[in-house]
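notes to self, project folder thing:

trying the whole complex as one job this time. last attempt i did each chain seperately and stitching them together was a nightmare. two parts in total, labels are on each line so i dont mix them up again. if this works i'll redo the older ones the same way
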Amino acid sequence: MQIKLDYNNMMTEFVGKHGISQGDIDALKGKISAAARAMENKRNQMAWRDLPYNQDDIVQDILLYVAEILPRIDTLVVLGIGGSALGPIALNQAIHGSFYNFCKKPRIFVIDNIDPTTMNDLFAQLNLETTLFSVVSKSGATSETMAQFMIVKDMLESRLGKERTKQQIVCTTDAQNGNLIKTAKTEGYKTFYIPSGVGGRFSQLCSVGLLPAAFCGIDIKKLLAGAAYMDKICENDQNPAYIFAILHHLALKAGKNISVMMPYSDGLKFMSDWYAQLWAESLGKKYDNNGNEVYVGQTPVKALGATDQHSQVQLYTQGPFDKVICFLTVEEFENDITIPKTFEDMPTLGFLGGNTLARLLNTQQKATEYALQKEGRPNMTITLPKINEHTMGQLFYMLEMATAFAGELLNINAFDQPGVEEGKDATYALFNRPGYEDKKAELETALPKSEKYII
Amino acid sequence: MQIKLDYNNMMTEFVGKHGISQGDIDALKGKISAAARAMENKRNQMAWRDLPYNQDDIVQDILLYVAEILPRIDTLVVLGIGGSALGPIALNQAIHGSFYNFCKKPRIFVIDNIDPTTMNDLFAQLNLETTLFSVVSKSGATSETMAQFMIVKDMLESRLGKERTKQQIVCTTDAQNGNLIKTAKTEGYKTFYIPSGVGGRFSQLCSVGLLPAAFCGIDIKKLLAGAAYMDKICENDQNPAYIFAILHHLALKAGKNISVMMPYSDGLKFMSDWYAQLWAESLGKKYDNNGNEVYVGQTPVKALGATDQHSQVQLYTQGPFDKVICFLTVEEFENDITIPKTFEDMPTLGFLGGNTLARLLNTQQKATEYALQKEGRPNMTITLPKINEHTMGQLFYMLEMATAFAGELLNINAFDQPGVEEGKDATYALFNRPGYEDKKAELETALPKSEKYII
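result (full assembly):
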C-alpha cells in the first residue's frame, strides 16, 4: 500500500508559465546528481535514516515497558517541545482522530508550551496516581520542558512521595550527556534514548515518537516498516521525496517563497505542523556550506481542506503567484457517512443527497485543485490509500528525505539551527544566568523603545 | 483596560533597511487620507461596524434562549465553516483555555469540516437528548454545513422523533433568503439572524459569535463593549488599526508577502486562525476596484510562542526578509505557577528556579523580539493587559478595522471572495448538479493527467 505523489499540476503543461518545465529540471541536472551523491556519501552522518532498521531491541523494550505500565495509568502527559511534540501529535491524530481523548485510554496530552493557564487546567484534570509523565529533551537543557519537569517532579513528590514519583516519570533523552539523563540516573527513572546524530525534527521514528505511539496502541513495528518501504523507494533516482524537493527548489528559485501543506483529512491535520517545523527549521538558513550569506528558506503554511476553502483558497487562487500547494488526500476512509436525500427539491442542496461525506471531501479537493490549476497555480498531491501505520511511516520518511535532499540542493546544512541561539541567550541574560553578563549589558544598551511608536 | 500596539521594531531606527521609515509613511499620506475618508464615507456599507451598538434586543433574545435551553443540554455542537467557526473557536479558547471540554458544561464542539471519521467519532460522544446542534450558514447553501445538517436532522428525527428534534436544533442564518431559513420556518426551529451586509469573516460580533459564546458563559455584553471601545479609539487618525494596516501595506510593497501572527499565549492560539481568514480572504484579490489585474495579498502564517521558537523562529531570524511578525502578548495571567528551585546547582537550569511560567513565557517573547530585531526583521507586538471579554472585543474589532483599512489602501474590495466560486462550481459539476453541464463538459475536456508525473 504505497503513497503516491501526483505532480502534474506543477508542470507548465498544466499551469502555464508559473509551473516547472522539463527544461527547468534538466537545467538542474548537475545539482540533482550532486545532491543524490551527497545523500549517499553522507548517509553515515544521517543517523535518522537507520531508524527503520536498527531498533528491534528498542521496540522490544518500549513494548515491554508499555505493557507493564499501561494497566495502572489512564493518562500519558508528554512534556516536550518542537520535534518531541509535533510528531507524536501528528501520528496520534492520524491514527485516532480528533476525539481520542474523549473515548480512549490512556488519554494523551502533549504539552508543548509553558502557558500557566494550560498547566493549571491540565493539572486539574489529572489523577496523579494514574498519570505517567514522559519528559522528552535530548540536551536536558530545554528551558520550557525542564521548567515543566521541575514543576511536575515537585508536585508529584509532595503529593505521592519520592518513591512513588519514580514510577510516574519516564525520560527520553541523550544516553550520555545532559541534565536529564543525570537526573534520571540519580532518581532512578526509567529512560529511553535519543540516538546521537538524530536531531529533534528528525526524531519521530526513534523513541521520541515510538514511546507515546505505543502507549496509544499504535503499531510501531508497522510504522517503521512503512518508513523502510519508503527508504527502498528512495533508492531509485526517480523517487517522490527527491521530486518533491526538486519541484519546491525550482519553485523557490522562481520566487515562490511559500509552501502550503493542505491535507483534506482531519486525521492528517497536524502533519502540516510537523512538516512546518521540518521544512522551516531545516531550510531557513543565513549561510550556505561555503559560508556565503544566502538567507534562504521557504515558509511553510498550514491549511486544512475542506475547512480552509472558506478561509485561504480565495488568496491561493487570486493572490500573488508566490506559493506551491501540496495537498494530502486519503482514498479510503474507514467509516463513511451517507448524506440523506432530505432536500431533493432544493437546487443548491439536492445534489448532495445520496452521496457520502468522503466523496464530498475528495470531490472538493479535486475541484480546488482544478480551480488552482485553471488560475495557473502550481500544486501537487500526495495520496494515502488509507491512513494507517504503514502509510504514515512512508509519509514521515518521505518528507524527511525530501527535506534533506532540498538542503543539498540549496547547499546548506539542513540539520542545525543556529538562528535560535540568539533568543536563548537573550532569555538567559534577562534571567541573570551566570555567564551571560555581556549579553545582559548588550540588551541594556540596546536602543530604548520610543513611546511615540506605542499606541 | 486598553490593548496596545507597539511598533518600534517595525521602524528603520530599530531594524535597519528592512524596516519602515517615517518617510515611507509620509509618502503614503495621500493614500492614507483617502483610505480614512473612504472608511467614513462607506461606513453605511460596513454593517459589521454597527454591531457593537445595535444589538441590545438580539443580546436579550440570545440570553433568554440560552437560559431556557441550558438546563437541559450538556453539549453544544456548532455546524459551521469559515467565519462561522473560527471566531467562536478563538473566543472560547481565549476565555476558557485548552481544557474547557474536559471540565465544563456545556461542552462545545465546533465541527468545521466534513471528514467522516470526525463525524462518526463525534456522534459516538453524544447523548442526543442533551445535545443542541447550532447550524450556521448565511446563505443556507454552504455544502459542508448543509451536508452536516442533513445528516444530523435525519439522525435526530429517526432517534428522537420529529417533534423532539425541533428542540435540539437552532439555526443562525439570513432572515429572508436561502434554504436554511426556509427549512427552519417549515420545521419550527428557533432562529437567529445574520444581519444583511455582515459577511462571514466579519460576523464574530453578531449572533454567529454571540450565541455559542453565551452558551459557554462568556459575557457577550462586555465583548461588544470592548468592540465599541476600540471603535471610539479608531475615530482618531492615529489609531492601532490603521497603523497596523499601514505598516503591513508598506511592508508588502517592499516584498514582505508574509504576515505572521504569533501569540505568546495558548488562549490566543486560535486568534491566528481567525486572523488568517480575515487577512487572506479580504486582501487576496485578482482585481482592484478599477478592474485592473493586481494579484495582491499577503499570506497569513499562524505561529505560537514559545512553542514555535522550536519550529519556525530559525526561519524567521535567518531566512529571507519576506515577513512581518506580529506578536500577541498577555501582561497578566490569571493563575501563575512558580518553578521550584530543583536544580540550583545546574547552570543550564538553575536560573529557572523561583521564576514563574508567565515570566518565562513573556521573557521568551521579549528575547525572540530582540533576536529578530538584531537580525533586522520587522516585528510588532499587540499587548492585552489581560485576556477577558473586553480586551477580546477590542482585538476582534481592531483587526477587522485594520483589514478594511488595508483593503482601502490596496484599492480592492475587502468584502467579497470571487476566487472561491470556481471551486464550488467544479464541485457542483462533479456531482452532476443540474445547471452545471457546461462546467462538467469543461472539466471533462481539461487536459488528462499524465502517468509520468505520478510517482
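what i see at first glance: Chain B touches chain A through 149 residues (CB under 8 Å).
need to look closer tmrw
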